[in-house]
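> call design_seq(struct)
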């Protein structure tokens, strides 16, 4: 699958077509390896929008992921709910520049990124809360439908070295000491 890079204007147009949602402000880009992701404000509602290159094989996985997230949200887990597309599907699809694009829209959950908490973070309490949430998620997921095909994440520990190598040429900071160190460590570990 290839990386999909869209401008906020392109993403807003596709979002309006698939979900009937018109952003009241320009979409704010977020980071992602393969998709174009944005924070959007729709009236008083805030949402996350993920636009990803797709195919029939990939769409099955994208819909499976969204269905799992919806199930978790419906059962009270701290997972954002997913907004359906105009056609009622959990993941909208559209053709853009000759390729299929899957669009997932979910409620925005506000919070502070873990890395920004610094000294205000009570690591013991955080570890307890994280472990408790993980245990509840695991218990809920025991009966969940299996993915439609085997899935590997590019940042899985056993493929980290290859992932970093693949991303080095496109990096804004290919000579970054931290990036080079991570690459070096991941090759020794694999």
């Amino acid at each position: 699958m290839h990386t999909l890079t869209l401008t906020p204007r392109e993403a807003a147009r596709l979002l309006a077509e698939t979900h009937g949602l018109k952003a009241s402000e320009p979409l704010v880009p977020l980071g992602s390896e393969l998709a174009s992701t944005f924070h959007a404000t729709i009236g008083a509602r805030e949402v996350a929008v993920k636009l990803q290159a797709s195919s029939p094989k990939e769409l099955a996985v994208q819909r499976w992921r969204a269905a799992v997230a919806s199930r978790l949200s419906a059962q009270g887990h701290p997972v954002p709910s997913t907004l359906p597309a105009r056609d009622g599907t959990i993941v909208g699809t559209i053709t853009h520049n000759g390729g299929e694009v899957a669009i997932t829209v979910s409620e925005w959950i506000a919070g502070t990124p873990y890395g920004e908490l610094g000294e205000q973070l009570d690591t013991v309490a955080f570890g307890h809360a994280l472990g408790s949430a993980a245990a509840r998620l695991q218990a809920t997921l025991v009966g969940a439908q299996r993915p439609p095909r085997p899935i590997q994440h590019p940042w899985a520990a056993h493929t980290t070295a290859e992932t970093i190598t693949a991303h080095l040429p496109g990096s804004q900071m290919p000579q970054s000491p931290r990036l080079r160190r991570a690459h070096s460590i991941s090759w020794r570990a694999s």
